[in-house]
């Protein structure tokens, strides 16, 4: 049973914080490891929190699926999106990748409207577009979007949108354990096959970072699944943009970058947009239970 839109919004906001942390760690790791190796360990270690979820849901029986091919397709879409984003991190500034990839929420809302007939009010479209504009204010992408490298996160955004669309479809019939399990296990199998050619020696520090990255990724994956299971994409799309704020702030804290006026203005716009979404979701939930 759905826990309501306020829960979904809160879950996704936390997932975006964890994803931003994982993205920063991934960029740090990419200087010593190949993208495929990072993806392998990220998903291998993410199985630890997933195992806890499966155990709480009743163990192996909770992994049964009536739509295995669709689950595998969803996992492959997620793997493609992750690979494209991670490759982009090695070629472009992290904030640029995240901001360009924020076409994904717009795509998700449009796809869910077309294929799932999810209603999208004018206010929700306004919130989605305002969130995208906030990301552009923070980034001021100018010439960046004209470079070929920008095609990588754009392609990743389309695969991410496909992942979320399939997640919405599968959420009607699948258990949360099966949806949390398929993505990391398919990713481990696919990238594990490449390790003989891409694996490198890892220090204890790198192994610790890979472990943290995997655990954060597993928790974030579960929270995102929960969010999109509990609420329509049009409600959640603006929350996706908060990831850019976290990435920019981590850039200041970890990488020694400076806060810009664009960041402060864009972050304020994002905070206002998400407060608007959260208030509307709370009111809608109260009306539904009245």
Notable features of this structure?
78% helix, 290 residues, 13 helices, globular
SSE topology:
Elements lengths: L4 H25 L5 H22 L11 H24 L2 H7 L3 H12 L6 H18 L11 H20 L5 H17 L2 H4 L5 H27 L2 H8 L1 H14 L5 H29 L1
Description:
With 290 residues, the chain is an all-alpha fold. The chain contains 13 helices and no strands. The protein has helices at residues 5-29, 35-56, 68-91, 94-100, 104-115, 122-139, 151-170, 176-192, 195-198, 204-230, 233-240, 242-255, 261-289. The mean pLDDT is 81.
- On the 0-100 scale, what is the average pLDDT? 81
Query: What is the ordering of alpha helices and beta strands?
Result: HHHHHHHHHHHHH
Using the alpha-carbon principal axes, give the shape: globular
Q: What proportion of the residues form beta strands (DSSP E)?
A: under 5%
Number of strands: 0
Q: The biggest beta sheet, please?
A: none
Low-confidence stretches: none
Broad structural category? mainly alpha
Number of helices: 13
């Amino acid at each position: 049973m759905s826990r309501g839109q306020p829960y979904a919004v809160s879950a996704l906001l936390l997932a975006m914080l964890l994803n931003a942390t994982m993205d920063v760690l991934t960029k740090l790791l990419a200087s010593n490891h190949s993208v495929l190796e990072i993806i392998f360990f990220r998903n291998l270690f993410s199985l630890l929190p997933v195992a806890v979820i499966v155990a709480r849901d009743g163990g192996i029986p909770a992994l049964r699926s009536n739509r295995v091919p669709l689950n595998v397709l969803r996992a492959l879409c997620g793997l493609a999106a992750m690979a494209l984003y991670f490759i982009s991190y090695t070629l472009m500034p992290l904030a640029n990748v995240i901001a360009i990839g924020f076409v994904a929420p717009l795509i998700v809302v449009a796809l869910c409207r077309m294929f799932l007939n999810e209603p999208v009010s004018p206010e929700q479209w306004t919130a989605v577009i305002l969130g995208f504009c906030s990301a552009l204010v923070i980034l001021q992408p100018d010439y960046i979007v004209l470079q070929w490298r920008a095609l990588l996160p754009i392609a990743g955004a389309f695969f991410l949108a496909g992942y979320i669309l399939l997640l919405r479809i599968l959420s009607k019939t699948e258990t949360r354990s099966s949806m949390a399990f398929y993505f990391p296990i398919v990713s481990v199998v696919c990238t594990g096959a490449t390790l003989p050619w891409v694996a490198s020696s890892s220090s204890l520090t790198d192994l610790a970072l890979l472990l943290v990255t995997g655990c954060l990724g597993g928790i974030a994956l579960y929270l995102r699944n929960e969010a999109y299971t509990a609420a329509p994409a049009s409600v959640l799309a603006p929350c996706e943009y908060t990831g850019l704020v976290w990435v920019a702030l981590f850039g200041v804290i970890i990488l020694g970058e400076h806060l810009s006026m664009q960041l402060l203005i864009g972050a304020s716009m994002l905070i206002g947009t998400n407060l608007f979404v959260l208030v509307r979701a709370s009111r809608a939930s109260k009306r539904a239970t009245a």
